[in-house]
Amino acid sequence: MAFLNKIVRTALNRAPWRTSALCACAVIALLGGASPAQAAYPDKPITLIVPFTPGGSSDIIARSLAPVLTEELKQPVVIENVAGAGGVVGTQRVVRSAPDGYTVLLGSGSEILINKIINPSISYDATKDLLPVAFVATGPMVLLASPSLPVNNVAEMLKLAASKPGGLSYGSAGNGTPMHVAGELLKIRGNVALTHVPYRGASPALVDLMGGQIDLAISTLSAANGSIKAGRAKALATTGAQVSDLAPNIPPLGKQPGLAGFDLGVWFGLFLPAKTPSDVAQKLQAAAQKALANPEVRKKFAEQGVTASGEPADSLRKFMAGEAEKYRAVVKAANIKPE
After folding, report:
1. Among 39, 62, 181, 284, which residue carries the largest CB count within 10 Å?
2. What is the pLDDT of residues 158-170, one digit of tens each?
3. How many domains does the chain have?
4. Interacting residues of 84 by C-beta distance below 8 A, sequence separation 6+
5. Does a structural domain hold residue 13?
6. Are residues 157 and 113 in the same domain?
7. What confidence category does residue 39 fall into, taking pLDDT thresholds of 50, 70 and 90?
8. Looking at the predicted structure, is the pLDDT value of residue 224 above 70?
9. Are 206 and 242 in a shared domain?
10. Distance from first CA to last CA of the chain, Å, rounded?
């Protein structure tokens, strides 16, 4: 760089004074070592990748957050749904994108951690290839029973399951989702055999639960709320360790006899490619924290069964480390395999 500076200064000294001001400004910027693109970030629209189809929890959260991020960053934040392979396709898109802050991922447990634990051959390692920017939200999942199942609480469900090993089925939003992991942990901690029925999303699982095709389901609270309120599904417990403010009338699994400490939920964060400059990441983090403190955003999140976080990248990184240990232990104990 010193050698380059010397050449540029020499050229500038020899140049006629009628050299354009634009050229001189460019030389000064080069000598200062500043990157105009970085200094101006953002100076064009930002793409927020949702690695699932429209209408799901990730999509709704992203669409609640994007308008406020747009206000904070003074540039449009545009949602792009890149679905496929349980979130892997959209995540790969971000991992392989330019590390300039203009392609952001709204990530969750499946595509960030669980998929890689289940299938090490996945081409990316999100803990190395992605940079956590902001902790967006957390929320409980809920254990549901079909209206026709003769149980009204967790104790009755476990007793019935123990009386007919493998005779009760539970549905999840798919293999390797947090709902699947929670179901397998319930089997281990409750010492019961349940038959897992994976679906492609929460909605079809709920339809079959309400129709009596499956006995139980584990779902996000947001997806299940309507069915619970309409009496078409029985909420037996949330999957947390404590009563959730979002569902104060539903007991937590972590308070049930024999299940003390049970604590698994859904979570969301913002991520950038790993080599994104720190000043860009910090600007996006600051904007996200302001957006997540917005009362309207927090209200919309609560309606979706999650609590806005807004904690910085370090908090998200530490949280992910703890979740990864939980996931890894369940995947190993339950011998969960890729589809």
Report:
1. 181
2. 999 999 999 999 9
3. 3
4. 51, 90
5. yes
6. no
7. low
8. yes
9. yes
10. 52
